[in-house]
């Protein structure tokens, strides 16, 4: 399907959130790069990022490291055994991502203000957890509206269910775009 989209002149964002042993991530990334995919998500663990960087070497594939899922908050991290909160973990993973040479980060729009100065303008910041004004947030815990995310320096916003589950997805998508242009 990725090849068909590329042949039609579309950009492909593959949200696999790869996280495995290094050799597996490297091989998978290499195969994905050969498909011509534009963006691939990986988890922001140093070994995972290094392996993906190796697999993407020589290609135009942009690697986006997932810092902390937008459906997690401080209580979830504590329950999982982390000794720090979301803000600290996102900052730590952002620094590691910069060191490992990935192209961008996946992070909640709530962390954009703290992370942009940390990583600079050269790193892409992609924000899921974006919900139009008045939309159901569902399982998302760290959210902003499209306008707020763009104003906070997001390079790309990810809006899934509010569009895909709308009775008129095209109209829902257009409403999101309209809201972003007001930022």
Walk me through what this model shows.
The chain is an alpha/beta fold. It has a single domain, classed as Aldolase class I (TIM Barrel, Alpha-Beta Barrel), CATH 3.20.20. Helix content is 45%, strand content 14%. It has 9 helices and 6 strands; from the N terminus they run H-E-H-E-H-E-H-H-E-H-E-H-E-H-H. The chain has helices spanning 2-7, 22-34, 46-56, 74-79, 86-100, 112-119, 146-151, 161-164, 169-181; strands spanning 13-18, 39-43, 62-66, 104-106, 124-127, 156-157. A 6-stranded parallel β-sheet has the order 1-2-3-4-5-6. The longest helix is centred in the middle third of the chain and has 15 residues, at 86-100. The radius of gyration is 16 Å and the shape is globular.
Task: Provide a short characterization of the protein structure.
The chain is of the alpha/beta class. It has 9 helices and 6 strands; from the N terminus they run H-E-H-E-H-E-H-H-E-H-E-H-E-H-H. The model has no long low-confidence stretch (mean pLDDT 95).
């Amino acid at each position: 399907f990725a090849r068909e989209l590329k042949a039609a002149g579309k950009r492909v964002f593959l949200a696999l959130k790869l996280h495995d042993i290094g050799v597996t991530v490297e091989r998978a990334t290499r195969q994905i790069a050969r498909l011509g995919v534009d963006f691939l998500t990986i988890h922001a663990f140093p070994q995972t990022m290094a392996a993906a960087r190796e697999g993407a070497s020589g290609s135009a594939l942009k690697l986006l490291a997932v810092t902390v899922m937008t459906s997690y908050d401080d209580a979830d991290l504590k329950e999982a055994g982390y000794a720090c909160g979301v803000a600290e973990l996102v900052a730590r993973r952002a620094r590691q991502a910069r060191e490992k040479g990935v192209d961008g980060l996946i992070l909640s729009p709530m962390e954009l203000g703290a992370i942009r100065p940390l990583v600079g303008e050269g790193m892409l910041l992609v924000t899921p957890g974006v919900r139009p004004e008045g939309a159901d947030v569902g399982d998302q815990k760290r959210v902003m509206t499209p306008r707020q995310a763009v104003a906070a320096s997001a390079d790309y916003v990810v809006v899934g269910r509010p569009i895909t589950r709308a009775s008129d997805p095209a109209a829902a998508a257009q409403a999101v775009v309209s809201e972003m242009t007001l930022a």
